[in-house]
Write a structure and sequence with these properties.
CATH topology: Rhopdopsin 7-helix transmembrane proteins
CATH class: Mainly Alpha
Order of helices and strands: HHHHHHHHHHHHH
Organism: Culter alburnus
Number of helices: 13
CATH superfamily: Rhodopsin 7-helix transmembrane proteins
Structural class: mainly alpha
Keywords: G-protein coupled receptor, Glycoprotein, Membrane, Receptor, Transducer, Transmembrane, Transmembrane helix
Subcellular location: Membrane
Membrane topology: Multi-pass membrane protein
Shape: globular
Main location: membrane
Number of domains: 1
Radius of gyration: 22 Å
Helix content: over 70%
Largest sheet: none
């Protein structure tokens, strides 16, 4: 019984701090502690550097595109902007994380990394805001029109940032009992909420044009956005929720070196997948071609942002 309780304490500490605990009394790096099974740790670091090299430019492009089209922007773009800023912020950590996992044994860097992890953990809140905005646009268009003023969305984004920073600061401390349950509840609540929005929008689309295959283009775009968000939630955020409740079925070494990095690797790569999916549905500007020195370049391209 005492050994079982010890294992549970180790696993709970892992979830709180994102830091695998070493079983040996001497300090060693995380990579050294997983030297007998390094494959998943290497896979995790590869995903993190993909985040850095692909996620940063993709998120910056999203920010630039929305800024370029601010005169004809969607109501949910304000949440997409904040999500892109959050993801760009998170994509900066791979060099520090590599040094910390492979070379460093100091505990001070874990405070910085845990803060970054806490910021990333809260990203589903912005996804939920996007989903709510699309749900209101499709299912409650009259109320949506009355609340179309973006000041309401600015306040909502500010509240989400406040929650994010408080959560990240609490995670940075790393010693709050049962703090990992906050993350699990947040992910499950976001998943359930987005599933509700998705089903509601699908039902509204089916009811909007009985006997016809043609649907309103705005509603089709809203449904497509919600489907993308739901796919991100299922693929990127659900693995930690699905795996961590079964941590007692894994040995401490397997959970520390395999399950932990598989789950968070899938979650973290969303910082690249989200902006890429957003850009894939947008009409990007084309570079004007100049035929010759005496030929004027074409007019500036027209940007189109989905409503």
């Amino acid at each position: 019984m005492a050994i079982t309780e010890l294992f549970r304490y180790i696993n709970s500490s892992l979830l709180i701090s994102h830091r695998p605990l070493n079983s040996s009394p001497a300090e060693q790096t995380v990579y050294a502690g997983c030297a007998h099974m390094p494959a998943v740790l290497i896979f995790y670091l590869v995903l993190q550097f993909i985040n850095m090299f692909m996620g940063i430019p993709a998120n910056i492009m999203v920010l630039w595109l929305i800024h370029k089209n601010k005169g004809d922007s969607s109501t949910s773009d304000i949440f997409i902007v904040h999500l892109a800023v959050l993801d760009t912020f998170f994509c900066l950590i791979p060099p520090l994380e590599l040094a910390n996992l492979v070379y460093l044994t100091t505990s001070s860097t874990w405070y910085v990394l845990r803060f970054f992890y806490g910021v990333k953990d809260s990203s589903p809140l912005f996804l939920s805001c996007i989903c709510l905005d699309r749900y209101m646009a499709v299912c409650h268009p009259i109320t949506f029109t009355e609340l179309k003023d973006k000041r309401h969305r600015s306040v909502c984004a500010g509240v989400v940032w406040f929650i994010t920073l408080v959560y990240a600061a609490a995670k940075c401390v790393g010693s709050i009992p049962n703090f990992e349950k906050v993350f699990t509840v947040m992910i499950l609540a976001a998943f359930a909420f987005m599933l509700f929005c998705n089903i509601s929008i699908l039902w509204a689309l089916r009811q909007s044009a009985p006997g016809r295959d043609e649907r309103h283009p705005v509603k089709k775009k809203a449904f497509k956005m919600v489907i993308i968000i739901l796919a991100i939630i299922v693929f990127n955020y659900f693995p930690p929720v699905a795996l961590f409740p079964f941590q007692d079925y894994f040995s401490p070494a397997v959970f520390r070196c395999y399950i932990h990095y598989i789950a968070f690797g899938f979650m973290d790569i969303s910082s690249s997948i989200q902006p890429v999916l957003y850009l894939s549905r947008e009409k990007l500007p084309k570079v004007p071609l100049c035929c010759s020195k005496n030929t004027e370049c074409a007019d500036d391209p027209v940007f189109t942002v989905n409503q």
